[in-house]
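<context>
A single protein, sequence plus fold
<sample>
Here is the protein in question:
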Amino acid sequence: MVRHKKPPSQTWKNFLANHINDIAAIDFFIVPTVRNQVLFVFLVLAHERRRVIHFNITTNPTAEWTEQQVVNAFPWNEVLRYILRDRDGIYGDAFKHRVSGMGIEQVITAPRSPWQNPYAERLIGSIRRECLDHVIVMNEGHLRRILTGYLSYYHRWRTHQSLGMDCPERREVHTFGRGRVVEIGHLGGLHHHYERAAA
């Protein structure tokens, strides 16, 4: 059989690059609490600027709960074209019907291939390394406050190499004449950012 030098269709990497403005990635991760309760965190991440569009926490995820999270993430006039997800059984028939009814096409990764959902996996790893590995989660409300604080820092101050060392929410470049440099803490001092403050 003749071997083709080029793949018959675009590669996975090319698909992600060609449709970056139209893709949102979704994924779950778990967080144990101090009382041995397992909390499930659901994330919706827009690929274009690595923005977290929506997150929510539950102790009992279902397909119906998950489909409602997608509805909450995308008002009708802001729906993206693709949702990138894994093959988790939580994305049942109710989820599939709701997403297709919203006009969103599901792009499903291959089995046991987390590298095919790289932005969501990287975000989850960053949340763990930069935040959750340094705190003890008490309960769902506590985790919600922690993640809200971290995502505020993530969107406004955490730089990304893929964004040219910018943040998901573009920030102003402070000039030398603006004033002295001040340190501002986030998450109780776990992270800091520095900016020039007017005298």
In short: The radius of gyration is 19 Å. Residues 12-139 form a domain with the Nucleotidyltransferase; domain 5 fold (CATH 3.30.420.10).
